């Protein structure tokens, strides 16, 4: 909860990835609050009550939305879609030269992953999924090839720049004509 709040303020992409990880943690403990309390919540030194409430609400949402096994909570789907609409607007309006350069550089990779996955996800979802898969590989201490590490760098730069622009836009510091 504390980490999530900070990530939401500073980097929307990191926030989404963090929340996907939280969903997976909740699933790993079979949406069981006693297990979450024992293995996750108890590790926090303060605000355990608030953190427990936050996890409890997420568990309830996952149950209500039938996301016990797979998928993402609707508010995260909506946020990802909003970020993709912003991405599309940046491209259409040519609002940021560096962003356009990063997108043109990563676009063939996005298309290749989209084709290989046989899923018609939008650019932001493909990028986030790619970063999440690589994050999971790192957490499992799996070997990551040089090519994969380069992909992480490219996707990370792309999504980092998008997140920076999105934060400025939300704060009213970026106008897109």
Main β-sheet: number of strands, strand sense, barrel status?
none
Structural class: mainly alpha
Distance between the termini: 35 Å
Number of distinct beta strands: 0
What is the rounded Rg? 17 Å
Which parts are unreliable, with pLDDT below 50 for 5 consecutive residues or more?
none
Q: Could you state the order of secondary-structure elements as H and E?
A: HHHHHHHH
Mean pLDDT: 94
Helix content: over 70%
Number of structural units classed as domains? 2
| Shape estimate | globular
Contiguous helical run count: 8
The share of residues in extended strands comes to under 5%
Can you walk me through this structure?
By secondary structure, the protein is mainly alpha-helical. The chain folds into two domains: 2-64, no CATH class; 74-170, no CATH class. It is 75% helix and 0% strand. The chain contains eight helices and no strands. It has helices spanning 2-10, 12-28, 33-39, 48-64, 74-92, 97-117, 123-139, 146-170. The model has no long low-confidence stretch (mean pLDDT 94).
